[in-house]
Specification:
By secondary structure, this protein is α+β, with helices and mostly antiparallel strands. It has a single domain, classed as Hypothetical Protein Pfu-838710-001 (Beta Barrel), CATH 2.40.320. The protein has six helices and eight strands. Strand 6 and strand 7 form a beta hairpin. The longest helix is centred in the last third of the chain and has 14 residues. It is globular and about 50 Å long.
Length: 193
């Protein structure tokens, strides 16, 4: 189990902007890795209503469950590794393993861990690399018969990260777009069309 504070900036891209950034940073096809996010919440979106999110990320044969919760700056991420059997039980039967994430969710108002269910998955083809004082991420995501492109910038210092990210967008003439996180975009496609 680990806890970290996630500070990231994100902006949706057009396909052309995405390809321009891939070229500008000389990203090779071999640097683009696939991962799948599997999303969970209660039927009435109790986690979402608290600004929280629960996912299991699948990368090859590696599985990690992450609970994201609002923090003073950024998000508090609590992550626990899963074994293949725990992952299969979560996806096939909606049975999530006990552990630190279970304990955290049980502490939240009006949320029963037993009511959490599986909503679906989102596939991301991701390239990530060092950029200035953080990690720049270029994502191509596919889900529910749609796809989108996004740039993310993960940093430790909010102000320095924000300045560097805005400078990057300005340099490549990419307009600032209000960008929901992936789970919100997934739910928007699945339930709120």
């Amino acid at each position: 189990m680990s806890e970290t504070i996630e500070i990231e900036f994100k902006n949706l891209l057009t396909k052309d902007e995405y390809q321009i950034l891939l070229g500008a940073f000389k990203v090779e096809e071999s640097q683009i890795k696939s991962q799948k996010n599997h999303y969970f919440d209660t039927p009435n979106f109790a986690l979402k209503k608290l600004g929280s999110a629960l996912r299991i990320r699948e990368k090859g044969n590696h599985f990690e469950m992450t609970l994201k919760q609002p923090a003073a700056v950024g998000l508090l991420e609590t992550t626990q590794l899963l074994i293949a059997n725990e992952f299969q039980a979560a996806i096939q039967y909606g049975t999530l393993p006990k552990g630190e994430i279970h304990d955290r969710i049980q502490q939240l108002d009006d949320i029963s861990f037993s009511l959490i269910e599986y909503f679906g998955s989102l596939l991301t083809k991701r390239a990530e690399f060092q950029y200035k004082n953080g990690i720049l991420v270029l994502d191509h995501s596919l889900y529910l018969k749609t796809e989108d492109y996004e740039v993310e910038y993960e940093v430790e210092d909010f102000q320095l990260g924000q300045a560097a990210f805005q400078e990057l967008l300005h340099q490549f003439r990419i307009p600032i777009r209000k960008t929901q996180n992936k789970i919100e975009r997934f739910y928007q496609q699945k339930y709120f069309l």
